[in-house]
Structure formats: C-alpha cells, structure tokens
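*** Query protein ***
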Amino acid sequence: MTASKNSHLNVYGIKNCSTVKKALDWLTTNEKPFVFHDFKKEPATVGKLEEWEKHVTYETLLNKKGTTWRKLGSEVQQQIVDAPSANAVLAANNSMIKRPIIEHSTGLLVGFDEDNYKTYL
C-alpha cells in the first residue's frame, strides 16, 4: 500500500522482520496508507537517526535484544555512550535499529504496540 500526498505515515524496517510484518498487517487492516522504507534497500543515515532523536532517545532506537547487538562484542557495546556514538554504529548496522519506526503527523512510533497505533494513527 502506498501513501497519498496527504499521508503522514512513513514506515521503516526490514521486510522479513516479524514485528514489521505485524505492523504492516495492522496498518493495512486498519486502512492506514503508508510508504514502506526497507533498511536493506534504503539504509538509515546518521541524519535520519538525528531527525528521529528529536522525538525519541537513541536508547529507544537501539535494539539490544537482537543478534546484531550480541555480535558487536562488549568493546564496541561499551563505546556507545551517547547519541553520536550510537548513531555511528546504527548507521553502519541498520539491523540494530528497533523496528518498525513509523513517522506520523505528530511524531514517531518505535516498535509494534497496537494500543499506541490506535491512539496515534
């Protein structure tokens, strides 16, 4: 489903991620037009991460539960102490960004939470 010019929904994630699939299914079922941006084809840049961090903290964007985080090793993990250090790692490892990220007219939603979707979308 694609967005009309009036739509405010941009969805970012990885297409084969189960959480992203849940979100896309919810948006489709609830007739919320969106444009999907696949990190594998359109990697998030440091600039995009900084834009998102106007709404949420870098800690919110950083997925510490995934395999990419575990593969980093403790030395690299310990070097992530602020937004610039996190953004450098996230831009190089988009699969470590918590997903999906949905840009909407009044802010940003990170992850899949049906109650938040009902409230804000």
About this structure: The chain has one domain: 10-120. Strands lie at 10-13, 35-38, 101-104, 107-110.
